[in-house]
Amino acid sequence: MKTIIFATTNQGKLVSLRKALDRVGLQAIAIDARSLDIIEPQAESCEEVAVSKAKQAFELLGQPVLVDDSSFHITALGGFPGVYAKYMNETLGAEGIMSFMNGKPDRSAHFDGVLVYVDEQGTQHIFRQAPYLGRIADKIHSMDAATAWSELHKIFIPEGSDKVLGEMSDADFKRLESEGNKYKKFAAWMQANEVVAA
Question: What's the gap between Cα 51 and its chain centre?
Fold first, then answer.
């Protein structure tokens, strides 16, 4: 059995990866989620952050590793919080964002994201997320803590839906999933390359 070391303790990310692998018939791949002592670099894009963290993780472990990083951009706030979405979640939370949005008629926002997989030879493979467009809700909603990635799932409504991410079902996610989904891209690559070659 092949094992992917996933440098995260985020339950939502684990669920997303597992579902993507299962959909292409890769149930035999095990996911080993780990919290690693690596530096979160100051950078302008989530890709720069993910590439740096993946390099550090591979040097630390000496074996294949997967890193996921995302950024969140609110149009009315000039693209804030961008790559600092995690820090903002931990300090201000959904309530803080909603206070910033008071009186803002433009509620558009989007996620950017990237997965970086470092193979046995130390080569990086980058899987970019197509911008995940949507808007900030008018109020804070509930969410399923077992599958949600962050506080943002209480307030972000993806394009084509009337629900926040935290209230969407598997069927909702599947209906809205695009070919640009980074987990889908990674699972397809694993199926076509890594696993076949193993």
Answer: 14
Q: Which of 27, 37, 30, 43 is nearest to 112 (CA)?
A: 43
**Bridge pairing between strands 3-6 and 65-74:** parallel
Q: Which domains does the chain have, with CATH numbers?
A: 3-197 (3.90.950.10)
Over the chain (198 residues), the average pLDDT of each successive run of 10 is 88 89 91 90 91 95 94 96 90 93 96 95 94 95 72 93 89 79 93 65
What are the Cα distances from residue 70, in Å, to 10, 123, 127, 129? 12, 21, 12, 9
The reported pLDDT for the residue numbered 198 is 43
Closest to 115 (Cα-Cα) out of 29, 190, 25:
190
Six-digit token pair at 89? Answer: 């979640």
pLDDT at 95 (0 to 100): 94
Are 5 and 61 contacting, i.e. CB atoms less than 8 angstroms apart? yes
* 155-167 residues labelled b (16+ CB within 10 A) or e (exposed): bbbbeebeebbbb
The pLDDT score that the predictor gives to residue 147 is 61
CA neighbours within 13 Å on the CB side: how many for 117? 18
